[in-house]
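Fig. S4 source data, part A: sequence.
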Amino acid sequence: MEVLASSIPSAFSLHSICRGFNFSTSQVSQWKFLSVQIVDSRFSLTNRDSKNVFLLHEPVSWMSKSCFLQCRLFPRSCGCFLKWRRYVSRRRVLDSSVNFKKDASLLLVRIVVGVMLVMSVSFVFSKPSWALTEENLLFLEAWRTIDRAYIDKSFNGQSWFKYRENALRDEPMNNREETYRAIRKMLASLDDPFTRFLEPERFKSLRSGTQGALTGVGLSIGLTKTDGPHSGLVVISASPGGPASRAGILAGDVILAIDDTSTESMGLYDAAERLQGSEGSSVALTILSGSEVKNLALTREKVSINPVKSRLCKLPASGNDYPRIGYIKLTSFNQNASRAIKEAINTLRSDNVNAFVLDLRDNSGGLFPEGIEIAKIWLDKGVIVYICDSRGVRDILDTDGGSALATSEPLAVLVNKGTASASEILAGALKDNKRAILFGEPTYGKGKIQSVFGLSDGSALVVTVARYETPAHTDIDKVGIIPDHPLPTPFPKDEDAFCYCLQDPASSCNVNRVELFSR
């Protein structure tokens, strides 16, 4: 629209219309036609989206009616007109921003829906690259058992989850033997000789051994703790009356070969499996006893494990008031051990014993709970053992005297380097609670605790789940328990000869009764 400037009455005051600007009438008369933008005075907020009202209220509030009127009549140099231009520009920017947000939101929704649709179609019509087989699931069962129960949560400094992924991808598991091989390889990565895999038959054999019978040669074995030229398997103990004991094999002897197979790189439980076998079968052993090498052929037999032997020893004294010592030899911790110890104590008490001697020499351990129960028999109260993991003390096993049977009589405990595992827990509890005096030599030093976990196919894992500390917080692993006094050398291991050493003051093995029970 064009406005004729001369049509404006001369009496019309420019100063009254356009504040702050000094225009003269002569300046206006020189303009012929001026193009001005017309603001539609009819625009209303009522037609706008209510949620955008807050964007419009602010610019409208400073646009007065006079400013509308001025800008309809005067050129762009009018300050009010410039304000309106800024308002229009601002409104356009705001409207564009709102529209952009709406369009962008709609576009984003469409993209997300499209991606989800593609993924759904792909999931329905595509096939997985591989699926877990029955053998994979058995391997994963073993992996989870170690993940949850193993004492070392660094898993010998490796990523346990990454090992699982690599094994499932790289290890052949097409049949049961390959799966067993993969499980053994996984356990070997932990570098722990006490954590091992048991096939179904070996697991069955282990259970029969803890129940009181085992077919073999009657040997308990361990690993040598020296780096000498004959490092390998060491005899911890030989079961009294068994094939190995009758052949003269002693604690501390080194097994160099089994059936002409060197034991230098043989695992502990591989050797144990080779020593066991069907009743009546033969096994050839090469034994280093001191400096002498022996080649022995032994016949396997069913070794009945009666864990307790006892005897009453009467010592010479004046009159009828002679000392009576109850001697109890505990050879293993099977499921009958605590019951047999109670029976022996009651039998000896019926003979009016004055003191007890508990012989744990060459006892290589067995069931951990049985060791705890036997400790409760001798203690009226106190801590038996601290169970520890990688973070410290996890549990405390103690007694309040509820199971106590023999807490008043003097007690001496005999130990040697064949005393291991549960035997060491028992000896440590009796020593640290000042219930008994220990005689002999330092014990073997097995301070780790294993638990057996059965798998779904009948096999099992023996897993190191914890270490233990004695009540005095002594970690005996690879160190052993140090006795209070040594025993004379040599000192007999059977009950009859033991009584003779106490009865004959002139014998080389004699131990004074006062020394035996005195601190």
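Fig. S4 source data, part B ends here. The radius of gyration is 47 Å.
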